[in-house]
Amino acid sequence: MWDSFTSGVAVSIMRNYGKNNGENEFAEMEYMNISVVTSNEPYGICDGSNPLFDGRHFPKFKLNKSGLHSGHVQMGLRDPFCFVENGKGKCKDGYTEEGTGPDSVRVLVATKAKPNHDLTSKLNREFFTNFLDVLNRPENTARFNLTTEFPHFRQAFYEPDFKNKTLGKPVVFDMDMSAGDFMALFYLLKVPVELLNLKAILVSPTGWANAAAIDIVYDLLHMMGRDDIPVGLGDVFAMSQSDQIFHLVGDCKYAKAIPHGSGGFLDSDTLYGLARDLPRSPRRYTAENSVKFGAPRDTDQPELRQPLALEIWTSILKTMDPGSKITVLTNGPLTSLAKIITRTNSTSFIQNVYIVGGHISRSSLDEGNVFTIPSNKYAEFNLFLDPIAAKTVFKSGLNITLIPLGTQRKVSRFIETIKQLQLTRTPEARFVKSLLSRLYTLKQAHHRYRHTDIFFGEILGAILMAGDQRKLKPTMQEMPIKVIAEGIEAIDGQILIDEKHGKLVQILKNIDPMAYYDQFADRLGDEKRSAVLGSYDEQRKMWNTPPNRT
């Protein structure tokens, strides 16, 4: 109730504007001199932890060199400086403390919630009564949910019938929900199931989108009539970044490289504003959890919890035919695949691994794409976002085909594909054309979107794996490589050619660009295996129509 209580206090103060000392209905108020603690005693030290002072001739913001903000800044959850033997931690970063010095500010503070005037009520705070009263008022009540907005709302699960078909090679797609990954997923779903049987999708929230963006994956599968494909959620933190004791928290050392605003999470989580054009799936992301699966407590409906990547992996292994093996396509950080390697005894079930990522630099001018970390010039995002996982995968002995950044850049021309897609009419082709057009327009219009062409190259792994090799004319080269994972931001994720200690990997060097554009557009434009529900607008019409008339 804390957030709603603070909102209630703020609204009450605004309604009583003009009265003294923030008078309101719900809290007792008092003026205090307070400061937010940003460092720890002893003050005035230089130990490399404080960015406001260390390495500067003059402190930032003209701070006092021996003042409240000049001490040690906590470096991670397990900073040794912060621990006291046989006692609690001593660091106070982020604490709010009362003070009298020049570093403090006079602020009006809510010090205590007011008790309920009605002594007979079971609600012991005045705010609780008001909160329930406001929620139950008919004024400004919610107008719609799906069942009331649409008179014939009904949920449907679309599952294909493959009983009389001979299924192709089983594939697991590991994605981080970037824009390019969704285009690759459309392509994989359009490939005949006799050639490629997409068994499952693993989602890594260590990349370009937050975990809740898994809803877009569900919606896309619903659109294409593939509600049968299970989706597993990977770890939120990169390997060795979660806390050793409490795994639900950790460090964002590498994930912080993804922009939070334009061109980053803000756009990826909404698929650049196009996510709501997709029909809504009955499957949704949920924060429900269960003690049985490692949660600290059961939530209200633990049976609705989102399946995890390892659970999905284990379940599909049980459905495999004897002697068959899985091909894995990774389009994001290798966190989930590395966890499969280290936590399960199942690498013998993996036939091949196609990795879209990594950069093999040919010269000092041949730079990578981690544009938010200027000190790291030669890494590629997918490997940089979890370098330890990448190192684990490349050292595993699996049969790996690498589709590096340099090759992706050779097939990253928006205009060519947009022209090809203009000749197609399927709903999925129209959607991808809209997405590509938006990425291209944003790239032309604003520097924050200068990197968006990297997403189109991410389709290359899917096309190489399932496309017509005779037309694509891929050129491969075997090379011994290793991935740097030293915990140093300026070099982590970079690939080195190491004849002595490197692992042999197949590298895609070249491919016919025009054949690439043609095959992508032709596959999406194929009327076979097209969308069963073209858009959210089409779904709305269905929900407004009686079942016997659709």
TrEMBL record:
InterPro entries: Inosine/uridine_hydrolase_dom (IPR001910), Ribo_hydro-like (IPR036452). Signal peptide: none annotated. Residues 171-517 form the Inosine/uridine-preferring nucleoside hydrolase domain. It holds the Pfam family IU_nuc_hydro. GO terms for molecular function: hydrolase activity, hydrolyzing N-glycosyl compounds. Transmembrane segments: none annotated. Belongs to the IUNH family. This is Inosine/uridine-preferring nucleoside hydrolase domain-containing protein. It comes from Gossypium darwinii. The lineage of its organism: Eukaryota, Viridiplantae, Streptophyta, Embryophyta, Tracheophyta.
